[in-house]
Amino acid sequence: AGAETVKRAVQLDAASRFQESLVCYQEGIDLLLQVVKATTDAAKKHRYRQKISEYMTRAEDIKKHIEKEKQDGKYHKQIRIEENATGFGYEKLFHEYLTEIVSEVWVEDPYIRQVHQASRYLLYNFLRFCEMLVKGPCKVKTIHLLTSYNEGSGRSQQMTALEEIKQSLSNYGVTLNIEFSSSIHDREIRFNNGWMIKIGRGLDYFKKPQGHFSIGYCDFDLRPCHETTVDVFHTKHTKKM
């Protein structure tokens, strides 16, 4: 398993998919270290240690390269979520970027609204995203939401729901600033530590649960997803609306 993992790391490395290759190198090195511990043949131990040393050196070089890309504002990671895939709850997707210094968040999504009863999950998704921010480890104080107005009679329901979220967040010392645009199309989330995440479907990449008491209704990690692409960037300065 260790040999296959580092083989995959080398392939990803050659394809300039450095973030993915780094993960594979790290996993492969851990597996090969276990093999070394279990091996009694001195010659094999020596060969394994040589290869591990090579992989560790390459992994360190990739780490430095990724860090330089972040500093230069050129970092880019892409995640492909397959149709019906699970394990992509908000915590899983965003946690590594929500460092302790994050205090301000910008959300641009035209569909944080409630068109009809079947679409109420759009607002619940935003609420779940806010809950994740409140739990930390970041210390978010301000969330900026830019979305579009609901159509027709649903506007009052949209406003009521967003106001309720706003009031609830204030109980945790978080301010929610809400703005509306009739021309917004892009979907992106930005943190003031320089991370920017663009999701093809915005926060609404989960499928509707089969029922209120079905697995995945509460735990988004167990909720099947729609196919979508997530692009992660790091910039020196996160722009404001």
Please provide a written account of the structure.
By secondary structure, this protein is an alpha/beta fold. The protein folds into two domains: about 1-70, Phosphotransferase system, lactose/cellobiose-type IIA subunit (Methane Monooxygenase Hydroxylase, Chain G, domain 1, Up-down Bundle), CATH 1.20.58.80; about 75-235, Endonuclease, Chain A (2-Layer Sandwich). Helix content is about 40%, strand content about 15%. It has six helices and seven strands; from the N terminus they run αααβαβαβαββββ. It has helices at about 1-15, 20-40, 40-70, 90-95, 120-135, 155-170, and strands at about 75-80, 105-110, 140-145, 175-180, 190, 195-200, 230-235. A seven-stranded mixed sheet has the order 1-7-6-5-2-3-4. Strand 2 (about 105-110), helix 5 and strand 3 (about 140-145) form a beta-alpha-beta unit. Helix 1 runs antiparallel to helix 2 (about 20-40), helix 2 (about 20-40) packs antiparallel against helix 3 (about 40-70) and helix 5 (about 120-135) packs parallel to helix 6. The longest helix has about 30 residues, at about 40-70. The model is unreliable at about 115-120 (pLDDT under 50).
